[in-house]
Amino acid sequence: MIIGVLSQKGGVGKTTIAVNLAATFAKSGLRVLLVDADPQGSALQWSAAREAEPLFSVVGMPKPSLHRDLPDIANDYQVVIIDGAPRVNELGRAAIMASDEVLIPVQPSPYDIWAAAETVKLIQEAQQFKPSLRGSFVINRKIAKTAIGRDVTEALASFEGIPVLPTALHQRVIYAESAGQGLSVLEVDPRCEAAREVAALAKLLGVKNEKKGKAA
Ligand SMILES: Nc1ncnc2c1ncn2[C@@H]1O[C@H](COP(=O)(O)OP(=O)(O)O)[C@@H](O)[C@H]1O
Ligand SMILES: [Mg+2]
Hints:
Structural class: alpha/beta
Number of strands: 8
Bound molecules: adenosine-5'-diphosphate, magnesium ion
CATH class: Alpha Beta
């Protein structure tokens, strides 16, 4: 299964979610590849900052041909996560076409909600060629008990066919702190709230351990 964490907007949490999902799947015993499709190379930097043993492989593929190149490579893995590039439509399109499932991180802010329309449009265009492609929103940096935290779900409901996932990631300093050491939140503290919410998100994605024929 290929999961694209994609948005045409920068700073929404693509890299944060991509590395933490990859770590969660890897810790559950799956063979995971993280593809850094952003020319900025943040996922590669995360991997370079890491002194611990790698949990999964990270490769840089910021190419408009990603959807053609990835299937062969993906065969060797049970789950592939793409950390997408903002702004460049050719890269966004290729990453969407390469994915089975697209996760669009959205922060509870009007700017993110407005920007979501651009990514949704690319998904809808891609669905013409690939009807099996699914997209969903994941709220990131939610601040508990705020009106904007609730309003964002309502605002995103206007995008038909792209549901808002019932698990949100909250604003937590551990996401930034762990990244500095090339670690996932799960490795810093497996019982922390951040690790729990990432695990809940991973579960929603329903990745199957195909070799053993059971859910991860
Ligand atoms: N849930 C969160 N809580 C706190 N900080 C976060 C969270 N998600 C992302 N960040 C921080 O926000 C910034 C942008 O996130 P990043 O994952 O790099 O976004 P993108 O890849 O979409 O540009 C980073 O500094 C990251 O550490
Ligand atoms: Mg990034």
